[in-house]
Amino acid sequence: MVEGCAVASVLGMLEEREAAARVRVEGLREEVARLTEVLEAAEIELDRRVIAREELVEALAVSAAESTAGAGAEREPVSSPVRGSTVPPWRDGLPVTVLAPDYQRLLGVLEEGRSAGRGPLKAREIAVELGLETTPAKVEGLRSKARRLAERGWLAQESSGTFSAVRRSVALPDADPSA
Predict the structure, then answer these.
(1) Separation of CA 144 from chain center
(2) Which residues on neighbouring strands pair with residue 165, listed in sequence order?
(3) Is residue 173 part of a domain?
(4) Both ends of the chain: CA-CA distance in Å?
(5) Residue 76 DSSP code
(6) Which helix (H) or strand (E) holds 163?
(7) Alpha helix (H) ranges present in the chain?
(8) Rounded (10°) angle between helices 123-130 and 101-115
(9) How many domains does the chain have?
(10) pLDDT at 175
(11) In this structure, is residue 175 part of a structural domain?
């Protein structure tokens, strides 16, 4: 019977280790869930700060443009946009290349959808089309960009909160002009 006791004590020891491992796994799962929430909050904060900076840059650019216009000198749009650059109002003949690459891709997705006969898209659907994560922070950042484009005439925003390409031709880079 001594042999049976040894097996029972080894089995008991293994069960204790298994229970301890389960407790550790559950603790780690809770920590991952907590960190996921912290990460999402940090991403939202980052997006808010990026949007605030972009809005400030835009307001300063408008203010500078108004003061320059008052002096009688009109400036041409920047031909090679930089990240975080402003979105100029759409006007006939203005190429999409005046926009930052993120804005160009957003316009491209909606223009392709219009050409394919699809209707307006929600910000989350645009994010999927662009291959972005659909976290709230990413979707809100994309929605902000789409709203900015709509406010300046590059896109149409529907009352349902969806966005579509405007029915006029917008010169997209590498786009078929007959589309």
Answers:
(1) 8
(2) 155
(3) no
(4) 87
(5) P
(6) strand 163-165
(7) 2-70, 101-115, 123-130, 136-151
(8) 100
(9) 1
(10) 46
(11) no
> Residue 10: inside a domain, yes or no?
yes
Q: What is the mean pLDDT of the chain?
A: 80
| pLDDT for residue 84 is more than 60 | no
Q: In terms of C-beta distances under 8 Å and separation of at least 24 residues, what long-range contacts does 7-13 make, across chains too? A: none
Is 171 a domain residue? no
- In angstroms, the CA 84 to CA 99 distance is 10
Residue 164 parent element (H or E): strand 163-165
User: In terms of pLDDT, which residue wins out, 61 or 164?
Assistant: 164
Helices 101-115 and 136-151 pack at an angle, to 10 degrees, of 80
Phi, psi of 156 (to 5 degrees): -110, 130
| For range 154-174, the mean pLDDT | 73
What's the domain range around 128? 2-165
Give Cβ neighbours of residue 137 (< 8 Å, ≥ 6 apart). Answer: 40, 43, 44, 46, 47
In this predicted model, what pLDDT tens digit does every residue of 103-131 receive, in sequence order? 889 999 988 888 888 888 999 999 998 99
Query: Which amino acid, one-letter code, is at 106?
Result: L
Give 57's pLDDT tier (boundaries 50, 70, 90): confident
Alpha carbon separation from 172 to 60, 111, 136 (Å, rounded): 27, 9, 28
- What pLDDT score does 1 carry? 47
Q: What is the rounded distance in angstroms from the CA atom of residue 45 to the CA atom of residue 50?
A: 9
Other Cβ atoms within 10 Å of 139 Cβ, number = 20
